[in-house]
Amino acid sequence: MNQFLNRLYEHHNNLYTLILNSFSILTNGTLFNENATTTTTSSFAPNSSSKFPLNFNNFTLSTFLSTQYLKFKEDLFDFIEVIHWREELWLQILIGIFILLFTTIILFRKNITIQGILFFFICIFAYLSEKLNQWCFKNWNLFSKVNYFDKSGFFISIIYAFPLLILAAIILCNLIIQTGKLLVIVKRRQIIVQQRRQNQQNQVEQQQRVK
Q: Crossing angle of helices 89-107/112-127, nearest 10°?
């Protein structure tokens, strides 16, 4: 787990430095070096001997992204293999709860009241993930065979908070869709009422003309 976290932080640092370099070159033609106190002026010179990401001729953005994707894919599989999914009962229960919530969201997608209640509680549980991580970090031996939790909260963010945020996003999108449908229905009824009133006025005018 620690090796996975170290590699993940390294990839993030490389990506962050690459973004800084790209922005610096686009603005003033300088390169940012996190190991130096000054910036290095560059016009994509082929004689640059700096390490990545300063040498943009030999290490392009597309190459970097493809390499980082392969590393991320490898780290993801390592992360999945490290966790004892079949031995940890609490993980199975947690996955079952997420499946139940997702099924409830789909079945009651047209009920705005239930969707709003689920969205409210999901946001509360996601907000409490930091305190939950602190408790699990201290009392992991009460329910787990291995201490997966760390002070940074990476594990609980992936296993607990991230699925909750996905469910909240699904509910939010569904609420927007349902609200749009309601607006269409209300507008159609409004048009029908206006047409009826207009027809009634036309009938009254015709009757007055006949008289």
A: 150
CA dihedral sign of residues 40, 41, 47, 51: positive
* pTM for this predicted structure: 0.62
| Pairwise CA distance, residues 76 & 30, whole Å | 35
Instruction: Give dist(CA 55, CA 42) in Å, integer.
Output: 10
**Size of the chain, expressed as the number of residues it contains:** 211
Q: Report the C-alpha gap between 85 and 103 in whole angstroms.
A: 22
Decide: residue 123, CB within 10 A, 0-12 exposed, 13-18 middle, 19+ buried.
middle
Distance CA 121, CA 125 (A): 6
Instruction: Tell me the sheet residues that pair with 41.
Output: 30
Residue 151, C-beta contacts closer than 8 angstroms, at least 6 positions apart: 137
- Checking if the pLDDT of 107 tops 90, the result is yes
> What's the CA gap between 131 and 153, in Å, rounded?
10
* CA-CA-CA-CA dihedral for 34, 38, 40, 41, to nearest 10: 140
The string of pLDDT tens digits covering residues 157-200 is 889 999 999 999 999 999 999 889 889 999 999 999 888 888 88
